[in-house]
Amino acid sequence: MWATSVPARNVRVIMKRFVRLECLAGLGFGLLMLLSNLANAAGVHQHGLADAAVVVEGQSLTVSFRAPLMDILGTEQPPADAAARVRYADRLKQVSEPLPSPVAGCRLSHETRSGVAALFPESQQHDPDHAHHEHSHHADVEAEWTFQCQSPDKLSDVTLPFLAIFSGLATEVILLLPDGQSALRLAPGNTRIPLE
Questions:
Q1: Any idea where the domains of the chain sit in the sequence?
Q2: Residues 6 or more apart from 132 whose CB is under 8 A from it?
Q3: Fewer CB within 10 Å: C terminus or N terminus of the chain?
Q4: Does the predicted TM-score (pTM) go above 0.85?
């Protein structure tokens, strides 16, 4: 099966997110994601589990994605040298642009993604004399893409091609569509988010 239902223990948390998001639907997606992220700050950072949101409003399609840094880079440690920074940057670039249904005629209009500089500022480079425990915080990779669609009513799905690369990630998805809201959980390796 391409998607499974969200586990019962997560339904209450997801529905609270929906209520917050639905109440704020007219405020713009960037603000929605900021508020959603703040609401989730008290939640558990869980390796192997990513979050995504798909919002269709008018001609606009916005897709956001967040995953534990460990699941994308294989580490949460700052890069030790310039070569490691390049490897990290290459890995982060693999979190690539989603693919909306081609018949909807969607064009990317805005993109923001986590980069090495934001995740690991130069001032936090790993000092061999530093104790390991000072870097025990968890970080997330975040991305957001906004598309303008000629025929948003023809959107039947959005594919996140990078989920094939990061095939160990399950992804909890929140959908805010003209027809209503829903949630689903993509099994690891599944790249397709159905919108119907």
A1: 3-41+48-123+137-194
A2: none
A3: N
A4: no
